[in-house]
Specification:
By secondary structure, the chain is mainly alpha-helical. It is about 90% helix and about 0% strand.
Length: about 70
């Protein structure tokens, strides 16, 4: 019985380790995807939606306000 309990606790420990690594990998991927999306969004606003003399942040805020008004 003692060996069985030890084996189970090792399995629990290994599973927890695998879960932690999976979560860390997911978080890293999520962060990268969000950062890349924001870069693409900023470039699009810069190129096509920004008015002269306006920053990207100002253009995004203006667009957000105009969307809420509709």
């Amino acid at each position: 019985r003692g060996d069985e309990t030890m084996t189970r606790s090792k399995l629990v420990e290994v599973n927890a380790n695998i879960a932690e690594k999976a979560v860390n990998a997911y978080e890293k991927i999520e962060k990268t995807v969000v950062e890349k999306y924001n870069n693409i969004e900023d470039a699009f606003v810069e190129r096509y939606l920004k008015k002269e003399g306006e920053s990207v942040a100002q253009a995004k805020e203006r667009l957000k306000k105009s969307h809420k008004e509709k």
